Amino acid sequence: MDTPITNIDICRSTDNLLLNRLGILHLWYFCIMNEVQDYIASQRPFHKEMMSVLRRWILDLGPHTTEKISYKIPFFYFYGPLCYLNPTPDGVDLSFVNGKKLSNNQKLLEDKNRKAVASMRLHSLAELEEHEEQVRQILNEAAILNQYLYKVKKGK
Q1: Residues 46-64: tens digit of each pLDDT
Q2: Helix, strand or coil for residue 67?
Q3: I want to staple 150 with a disulfide (CB 3.0 to 4.6 A). Which of 38, 43, 79, 94 is the partner?
Q4: pLDDT at 21
Q5: Nearest to 86 by CA among 62, 64, 63, 114
């Protein structure tokens, strides 16, 4: 007769003692994080470098930021869906779920006739580094917008 796998068994299989104390939810989160890291690691070097930098900047938004693979690409959540990374033949798109609601003061976002999403295409690591301040400003604005929309939805 098969015995059920327990949280402790799963944690032992990952060789991560911290997860043993935190519980199954944190194990699930840990596995999802690895899924995104694995996705990025599987990309061509051209994409991998840019996606790794963008991922780090997105996760810098704070502890409420989570990530997972949705629609076969990395999605990031901050009080709801925030943005996603999409490798293209000539770069990486950083797309914002509520992008059309952003100010776009930096003039980097394009809506491409989409209802809500706006994105920017980054063609090289040098271009990404050149626009670091603007990209981080957009990320922060998107996070603030998401948090505001979340509070309005919850009636707080």
Answers
A1: 999 999 999 999 999 999 9
A2: strand
A3: 79
A4: 47
A5: 114
The answer to whether the beta carbons of residues 81 and 111 sit under 8 Å apart is: no
Give CA–CA dist 4/15, Å, rounded.
19
Residue 27 has pLDDT above 70, yes or no: no
CA 133 – CA 47 distance, rounded (Å): 20
Q: Is 69 helix (H, G, I), strand (E, B) or coil?
A: strand
- The CATH architecture of the domain made up of 44-154 is Alpha-Beta Complex (3.90)
CB atoms within 10 A of CB 122: 25
The pLDDT score that the predictor gives to residue 132 is 98
Burial of 73 (0-12, 13-18, 19+ CB in 10 A): middle
Query: Structural domain boundaries of the chain?
Result: 1-42, 44-154
State how far the Cα of 4 lies from the Cα of 74, in Å rounded to an integer. Answer: 31
Q: From 138, 48, 150, 56, select the one nearest 96 (Cα to Cα).
A: 138
Structure tokens at 9: 């068994």
Q: What is the pLDDT of residues 66-116, one digit of tens each?
A: 999 999 999 999 999 999 999 999 999 999 999 999 999 999 999 999 999
